[in-house]
């Protein structure tokens, strides 16, 4: 498509139900890398009961034949264009047979049926099924699937699809076949097929009603010994969904397959999840603790989709957050139950603020339920997923756990087997609680991060504290005026002696509770707490009860008080973050005239934390000692000065490392003793603090502590320790870094996922030589644009996590990224468009950089035949 014929957006307001239903589809695949034949037989029933014109979706298919009720159609009885097969006057009930061919080997988009290291696999969400056969490829068309797969026995001994295996056998010429049937009706986006030479790890789960479910994990035979953690995670997920939500698995077989080439993390196809190996494989020598947690989370996420997504699905793609927001919320609850709830919440909020808040403040801002899109693949965003999960969490906070659970029960009971909308979800919550959630619905339609301001007034004569709240949401593209939202604010009061005080609102009886939820629904509201002897320190937005930017009048002393005493762990962490953020932002503003240093109070607070760390949650201590993320700080600056930011962060880390040498070293040693090399929560937490301490020590005094990092690298057999040590050594650019990078590659060159870490580590080293280093790494024999994980490791990390390298003054980083986006766009538009999103931040930089980033966007837009995906991102970014 040329940039002059702009693709038209699709609008939620234009939704119409489909003209017909398919009672059943029988699909026959004769697999071949270059010419796979797909025969589809559709049992059609028009909704009107009269003949209808039927426009089936299809892309890059070669049509061989069409029959209706066994009668071959003539050339004048249908029309084919780039996106559709249109059949005129289709009888109200009939059988349509369509034969098409496709070429899996040439499929570099990784949507539809493709080959990954010799394994045939599919990805149909959102609109990949239309690359397999002509169909009504929309989630509100739900059908029963019968599948026959035929392939070469030697290269494809394993043949899988959704549901249950119902037959199979050998054929002539070294071929064989398998038959699968899925008893559950499903939309086409949940269809899956896998064929290849795969090893299998088997186990089983007995549901609480006593049914035995076979669990099968498939991967390349070289990787099958890295599947145990995923299997264990799956079993715990199944048990958890039964305990937490009363939801049982519904088939006798649950299968997961890992493939190396995948556009996202994983996919919840009914009974046959397909995973990126990066979200499936884990072994302590090849994977970090972060990887272990990621695998556990994604296995749970996809498994939970069996109910929140598969049994109850979305009516149309605008409703994507219905399944994704809810399922992310569910996987967050699961992880929180498996490990430390406070640390999980902190990690989720950091991610939200660093990525989603930035998205919501830029040209690509959209509500969790967008009103229009050009390419739906561009809307698998932090907003739809993570902000969507926050919206579900707010319902949980407003209703309380018990009513929320009733609401979920009602939602599944009411809508099982159907394709529904976000209104249906909120309606179930309203019905069980009797609450008016109409204003709450605005969260689904309004983009932008609300700002909540709070000021306080203490009246010592009456012993009352008044909190005055105002809320406002900044304009976002296409949405100038904003309305007030329904915002739950969890609060507490911390007394001068550090005690949690009972909360009694004026006009209420005392209940003795020390935490409660205030509800904002208007632009301005105030709440008065009574019965107070002295002015307490308010602890506001505990647990980050709403996805807002909070501006309070808390002083530095108040924050230090909360850091010490708040019973809400999240707000203890938040107090430390606010103190550090404030100091960093100030230092950036005055740099480079004065040497930026963290103030003594912050250092002292860190020191106290370290000294008290033995009794505490060590991962919590590590998080609290960590400086806020770059992106979080950048959002608070009017113009992002990358050089000043870099200098300030570095100086802060150096100063902390030097001034806290003794307590950091003590923490390092005691954590090393606690760390038993397992992946239990406590051992992972100890390693987190150990490696945080090591980083500060080495940055603070490179000459003195480089040997400690070198010996950790050499002595540990765990990837977490090795990679942490290597990262810090590469960053300080000392004597050991380069040779250990080589050593690392030499050891792990046959493990693709570890090679990704090697690329990412080097792409993320923040220095002015990075564009050349990244350029050189692209020439490395192990680099390829064909593998999304590798592209993300090198180019994703460089453009998202290497501030001074990517934004180098001469524009070398921008050119490099744009070159590769253009090259990738014709091969895998989905991955190209995603890489391109960084350019959308151009308005946040100085004029010189703005110009350079804009001209790269213009250059991309001018590419003949640019994909819909990249067109949408680039044009909206400039807009
Ligand atoms: N539904 C998947 C999830 O659980 C997302 C996903 C996987 C996806 N693969 C995709 C989305 C390809 C679009 C294209 O989050
Ligand atoms: Zn999902």
Features:
single chain, 879 residues, alpha+beta, Immunoglobulin-like, 5 domains, 5-stranded mixed beta sheet, 27 helices, 32 strands, binds zinc ion
Walk me through the topology.
Elements: E1 10-11, E2 20-30, E3 36-46, E4 52-57, E5 62-68, E6 71-72, E7 78-80, E8 84-90, E9 93-102, E10 112-116, E11 119-123, E12 142-152, E13 158-161, E14 164-170, E15 175-187, E16 193-196, E17 199-206, E18 212-219, H1 228-245, E19 253-259, E20 266-267, E21 272-276, H2 289-304, E22 313-314, H3 320-338, H4 341-360, E23 372-373, H5 382-399, H6 401-415, E24 419-420, H7 422-433, H8 442-445, E25 451-459, E26 464-472, E27 487-494, E28 500-501, E29 516-520, E30 524-529, E31 537-540, E32 549-552, H9 556-565, H10 569-590, H11 600-611, H12 618-625, H13 630-634, H14 642-659, H15 661-674, H16 681-700, H17 702-715, H18 719-732, H19 737-748, H20 752-763, H21 770-778, H22 788-801, H23 803-806, H24 812-825, H25 829-836, H26 847-861, H27 868-878
Parallel strand pairs: 2-12, 18-19, 19-21, 22-24, 25-32
Antiparallel strand pairs: 1-23, 2-3, 3-9, 4-8, 5-6, 5-9, 7-8, 10-11, 11-16, 12-15, 13-16, 14-15, 17-18, 20-21, 25-26, 26-30, 27-28, 27-29, 27-31
Bound molecules: tryptophan and zinc ion.
């Amino acid at each position: 498509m040329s940039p002059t014929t702009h693709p038209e957006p699709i609008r939620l307001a234009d939704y119409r139900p489909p003209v017909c239903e398919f009672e059943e589809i029988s699909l026959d695949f004769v697999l071949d890398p270059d010419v796979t034949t797909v025969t589809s037989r559709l049992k059609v029933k028009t909704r009107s009961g009269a003949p209808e014109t039927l426009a089936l979706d299809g892309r890059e298919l070669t049509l061989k034949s069409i029959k209706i009720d066994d009668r071959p159609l003539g050339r004048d009885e249908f029309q084919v264009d780039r996106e559709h097969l249109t059949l005129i006057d289709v009888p109200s009930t009939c059988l349509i047979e369509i034969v098409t061919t496709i070429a899996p080997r040439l499929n570099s988009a990784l949507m539809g049926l493709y080959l990954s290291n010799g394994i045939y696999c599919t990805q149909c969400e959102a609109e990949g099924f239309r690359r397999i056969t002509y169909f009504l490829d929309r989630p509100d068309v739900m059908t029963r699937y019968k599948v026959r797969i035929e392939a070469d026995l030697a290269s494809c001994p394993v043949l899988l699809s959704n549901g249950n295996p119902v037959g199979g056998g050998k054929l002539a010429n070294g071929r064989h076949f398998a038959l699968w049937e899925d008893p559950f009706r499903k939309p086409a986006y949940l269809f899956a097929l896998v064929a290849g030479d795969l090893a299998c790890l088997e186990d089983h789960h007995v549901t609480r009603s006593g049914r035995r479910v076979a669990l099968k994990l498939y991967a390349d035979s070289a990787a099958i010994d890295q599947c145990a953690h995923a299997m264990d995670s799956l079993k715990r997920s199944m048990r958890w969904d039964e305990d937490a939500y009363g939801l049982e698995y519904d088939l006798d077989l649950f299968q997961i397959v890992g493939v190396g080439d995948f556009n996202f993390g994983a996919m919840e196809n009914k009974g046959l999840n397909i995973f990126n190996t990066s979200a499936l494989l884990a072994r302590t020598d090849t994977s970090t603790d972060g990887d272990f947690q990621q695998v556990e989370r994604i296995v749970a996420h996809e498994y939970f989709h069996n109910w929140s997504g598969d049994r109850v699905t979305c009516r149309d793609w605008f409703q994507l957050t219905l399944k994704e927001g809810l399922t992310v919320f569910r996987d967050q609850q699961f992880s929180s139950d498996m490990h430390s709830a406070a640390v999980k919440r902190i990690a989720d909020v950091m991610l939200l603020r660093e990525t989603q808040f930035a998205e919501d403040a830029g040209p690509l801002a959209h509500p969790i339920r967008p009103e229009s899109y050009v390419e739906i693949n561009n809307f698998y965003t932090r907003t739809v997923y993570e902000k969507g999960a926050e919206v579900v969490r707010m319902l949980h906070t407003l209703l309380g756990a018990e009513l929320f659970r009733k609401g979920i029960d009602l939602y599944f009971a009411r809508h099982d087997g159907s394709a529904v909308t976000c209104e249906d979800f909120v309606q179930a919550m309203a019905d069980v609680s009797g609450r008016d959630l109409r204003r709450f619905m605005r969260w689904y339609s309004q983009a932008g991060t609300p700002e909540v301001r709070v000021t306080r007034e203490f009246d010592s004569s009456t012993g009352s504290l008044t909190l005055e709240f105002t809320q406002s949401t900044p304009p976002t593209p296409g949405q100038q005026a904003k309305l007030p939202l329904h915002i739950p604010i969890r609060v507490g009061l911390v007394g001068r002696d550090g005690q949690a005080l009972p909360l009694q609102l004026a006009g209420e009886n005392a209940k003795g509770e020390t935490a409660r939820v205030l509800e904002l629904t208007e632009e301005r509201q105030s709440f008065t707490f009574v019965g107070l002897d002295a002015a307490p320190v308010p602890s506001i937005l505990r647990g980050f009860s709403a996805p807002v930017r909070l501006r309070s009048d808390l002083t530095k002393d108040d924050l230090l008080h909360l850091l010490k005493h708040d019973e809400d762990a999240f707000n203890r962490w938040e107090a430390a973050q606010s103190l550090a953020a404030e100091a960093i932002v100030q230092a950036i503003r005055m740099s480079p005239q004065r040497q930026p240093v963290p103030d003594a109070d912050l250092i002292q607070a860190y020191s106290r934390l370290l000294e008290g760390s033995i009794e505490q949650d060590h991962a919590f201590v590590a998080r609290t000692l960590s400086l806020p993320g770059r992106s979080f700080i950048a959002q608070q600056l009017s113009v992002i000065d990358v050089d000043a930011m870099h200098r300030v962060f570095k100086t802060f880390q150096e100063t902390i490392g030097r001034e806290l040498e003794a307590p950091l070293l003590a923490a390092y040693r005691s954590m090393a003793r606690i760390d038993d090399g397992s992946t239990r929560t406590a051992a992972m937490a100890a390693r987190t603090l150990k490696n945080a301490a090591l980083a500060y020590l080495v940055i603070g005094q490179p000459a003195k502590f480089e040997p400690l990092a070198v010996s950790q690298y050499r002595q540990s057999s765990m990837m977490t320790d090795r990679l942490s040590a290597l990262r810090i050594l590469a960053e300080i650019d000392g004597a050991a870094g380069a040779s250990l990078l080589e050593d690392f590659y030499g050891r792990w060159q046959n493990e693709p996922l570890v090679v990704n870490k090697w690329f990412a580590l080097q792409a993320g080293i923040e220095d002015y030589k990075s564009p050349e280093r990244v350029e050189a790494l692209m020439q490395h024999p192990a680099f390829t644009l064909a593998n999304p994980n590798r592209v993300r490791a090198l180019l994703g990390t460089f453009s998202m996590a290497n501030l001074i390298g990517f934004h180098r003054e001469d524009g070398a980083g921008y050119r490099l990224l744009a070159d590769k986006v253009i090259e990738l766009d014709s091969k895998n538009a989905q991955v190209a468009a995603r890489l391109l999103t960084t350019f959308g931040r151009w308005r946040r930089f100085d004029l010189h950089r703005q110009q350079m980033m804009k001209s790269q966007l213009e250059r991309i837009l001018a590419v003949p035949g640019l994909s819909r995906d990249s067109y949408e991102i680039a044009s909206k970014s400039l807009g």
